[in-house]
Amino acid sequence: MVASAFTSSAVTGVAKVARVASGCAVVLPLVVAVEAVPMVLGVMGFTATGITSSSIAAKMMSAAAIANGGGVAPGSLVATLQSLGATGLSGLTRFILGSTGSAIAAGIARFY
């Protein structure tokens, strides 16, 4: 009886660890993605000093300016990405993205 109780609690413990590990496998990439946003924007050419010449950002800006009659519209994708590239993600934005991603990951992990 004692051995079966121990085995049952060990199996339950292993199942809990497996659930936590599967949740971490989903949450960890989300955390990395939130933290990688400034780096990815910099690689694209959206930097704190402006848009880098001959970059993806420069090509996007050129296309947006041509489509908009000579200027980049405030609130457009290019303007928003440049703002994020210049200032980075605020603490509140990181919190919201992290919380949302964690909630989604927790919902997904329930099915496994």
From TrEMBL:
Q: Name one Pfam family in it.
A: Ifi-6-16
Residue spans crossing the bilayer = 30-51
- The keyword Membrane is assigned to this record: yes
GO CC field: mitochondrial membrane
Gene Ontology process terms (BP): intrinsic apoptotic signaling pathway; release of cytochrome c from mitochondria
Instruction: Name the membrane topology term.
Output: Multi-pass membrane protein
Keywords of the record: Membrane, Transmembrane, Transmembrane helix
Please indicate if the UniProt record lists Lipid biosynthesis as a keyword: no
Compartments annotated for it: namely: Membrane
Family indicated by similarity: Belongs to the IFI6/IFI27 family.
Name of the protein: Interferon alpha inducible protein 27
What is the scientific name of the source organism?
Answer: Macaca nemestrina (Pig-tailed macaque)
